[in-house]
Amino acid sequence: MSDTPKFKVTIDNITVEVPAGTTILNAARLIGGDVTPPAMCYYSKLENSGGKCRTCLVEVSKGSEKDPRPMPKLVASCRTTVMDGMEVKNITSERVIDARKGVVEFLLINHPLDCPVCDQAGECDLQDLSYEHGSEQSRLDFPKRTFEPEDIGPNIQLHMNRCIMCYRCVFTAEQLTQRREHGVLERGWDSQISTYLNKALDNEFIGNIIDVCPVGALTDKTFRFKQRVWFTKPMDAHRDCPTCSGKVRLWFRGEEVFRVTGRKDKWGEVEEFICNTCRFDKKRASDWVIEGPTKVNRHSVISQNHYRGAVEAQKDLIREIIGKEPKMLLDIHTISDVNRPEIHLSEIHGPSHSNDFLPNQQLEGQRKLEVGKK
Amino acid sequence: MKLLLENAHIEGIRNYDIYRKYGGYRAVEKALKLTPDEVVEEVKKSGLRGRGGAGFPTGMKWSFLAKPEGVPRHLVCNADESEPGTFKDRYLMEFLPHLLIEGLIVSSYALGSNLTFIYIRGEYAWIVDILEQAIAEAKSKGWLGKNILGTGFDCEIFVQRGAGAYICGEETALIESLEGKRGNPRIKPPFPAVQGLWMRPTVVNNVETIAAVVPIINLSGEEYAKIGVGRSTGTKLISACGNINKPGIYEITMTESVEEFIYSDEYCGGIPKGKRLKACIPGGSSVPIVPANLLFKTAKGETRYMNYESLSDGGFATGTMMGSGGFIVFDEDQCIVRHTWTLARFYAHESCGQCSPCREGTGWMYRILKNLEHGKGKMSDIDLLWDVQRKIEGNTICPLGDAAAWPVAAAIRHFRDEFEWHITHADEAQKRNFGLAHYADPRPVSAS
Ligand SMILES: Cc1cc2nc3c(=O)[nH]c(=O)nc-3n(C[C@H](O)[C@H](O)[C@H](O)COP(=O)(O)O)c2cc1C
Ligand code: SF4
Ligand code: SF4
Ligand code: FES
Questions:
Q1: Are residues B306 and B348 in the same domain?
Q2: CA-A166 nearest atom, ligand 4
Q3: For chain B, what is the domain count?
Q4: Which ligand is nearest the CA of A49, by number?
Q5: pTM for the model
């Protein structure tokens, strides 16, 4: 595509040249670092994705060389294409920071904050996002909306309580599997992802909805609760697969493969979609040709790989690694030893707290204290 | 002066023969002698602005329609009318169905749409029959179908019923719904004028906008533009409701003052039982509520008139919007907190749920307001509410987010003390289900 004109765009005072038709978000990803807006719903491999979560909002302070007027509203960088001479403000705009904080709060008000028992903890985009942009405390003091967990197919479980309605799984089901059994029911606050009437999704590629899900709403039942992500070690591997590329990531603890996923790039997107057989059925190291340990350069908890065996409070460590106070969701680290699926987090009103996961006797005491207060 | 409702009271006007006898379909005869571009030009000259709420100049919208070679174009009539307080389109379609059909034929000709749709609110079930009968009559008389009036122009009109979602009135959600999908608004661009229905160039217009094309062609754009004032040309239908003596549909020339509109016998006929005026929402539930003291006079002390410019004078700080013309009047007994809660419930219920600020924010505002109304609020809730609406506004995919935020913002802006009163006097607020009545009604009590 050598004949596509190149456009110059300046994001947070850094200028790049990109082909016409590139979105602001993708231009920012070329620059990388803090200049790149967070994206919770956009997925470059899925057509029509993006525009929904609004975490990637940016300010366009100059429309283009030809029409330098600023855009009145913040725009979704994942769905707005650059113009020549465009100037964009991301972290240099107070409006953006303020709006993003709002969006993060909106995404969290109904989120169970049950990271301690969530399989996604440690590799959750929402966890990272709230760490970077969220506030210390939720201001919602109403019961959160709740749904019953639902099995969709033999290998996947949907935990609708945690869903952020990014629609990535809907697009995956639609675009990868050519079947549309899985979509959105209801509207607004009550909208939910569902396979209509509990129809199981049994397509060869449906497992990919687990990988695209930015949160712990869609999880691998063959892995659920077996291991915390940060205790496992990712290795790149491949096999000769008749259905897909066979290029995967294996998650080891010791010699054992606990999970197989697609290989995610630094933006958290899988490089290639993999088939269900590779994902769910090939769980022996001998099924695979191991290429070597995965190089993770994402700013996430697993990437640090310091957590092997970590049991007690590690706040200092976190502060050291990430350079900030851990916020709300990162509380998992003080309690990572208490996998307590019997606590129904959605029933905890208001933001959940590590106290909610204390061992039983302590918890009893805690409750008494609270009752006493009233 | 009446342009749209002139013949509304003639018995049998719903039927083709009577409609034709009173000059119906003259506009089609006249327009089809012009070129499509000439018709667009007339509409441009008329200064007609979209009657669906946003007030965007119709001629300009039409001229933006992309015309790629070999790709069909479509006109879609937005008859989804679901905004609380707005019921003018229903009246037009119910009593003057042929006026809409006539307008659609002319507009379809101007835009080159051979396949035109009316997307109608699902609850208007009986009107579907009325429209379909009118379409059948028009077709049997040669105004629709193939080679209309020998010009070589073909046109068919179909009526599609919605399934009960307010959001399907938003033009891109409407298009999705018309395509048989879930009515989620699309992310723009691309705009419908480039990629609309089935990714073809599409114009979506309100029922009243389309109907107004008939008098524009009959009178000429220039003559039509002489009616009204400034950039508010022609006539506008207002659906008036709330605490007034004569609720109903009124056609105005936008030169009437708000005071005249509420108190004269020609229009709303004043407020019943000699009650005093407290506030008004002049343009459908989405536009900001204005307290009585800012309603008749702008903040500058000038008379406020029933037109686009005057109603929005002062911006959102002291003004409001013409919107879709749903005029809701509140007397001194009405509780603003309760009312705001009702609206918040509506928007929370109608949010499509696609984008996070609207999905979560509308539900959150509704819950806070419910608490406030039921005496369970805290002082900090008012600021929280303000903050939530501020974080929704402007940050969403479609304007429903704004529409949900504005009424809350305006209520707090103008009636903050009433919110506070609900917190400090929770019990009293429970017992008498209305708020304070100290908003200066500029008229003496005896006048009404
Ligand atoms: C949530 C929402 C609901 C809407 N509902 C309607 C409606 O019921 N009828 C209508 O004509 N326009 C409605 N609109 C406005 C349409 O999107 C569109 O602007 C209008 O149909 C354009 O027609 P006009 O230019 O003739 O006004 C709605 C907009 C939004 C955001
Ligand atoms: S289940 Fe996951 S992927 Fe699907 S919409 Fe919800 S958050 Fe997105
Ligand atoms: S603003 Fe509300 S109604 Fe509009 S797209 Fe977003 S969620 Fe849907
Ligand atoms: S990533 Fe752009 S709106 Fe979600």
A1: no
A2: 4
A3: 3
A4: 4
A5: 0.89
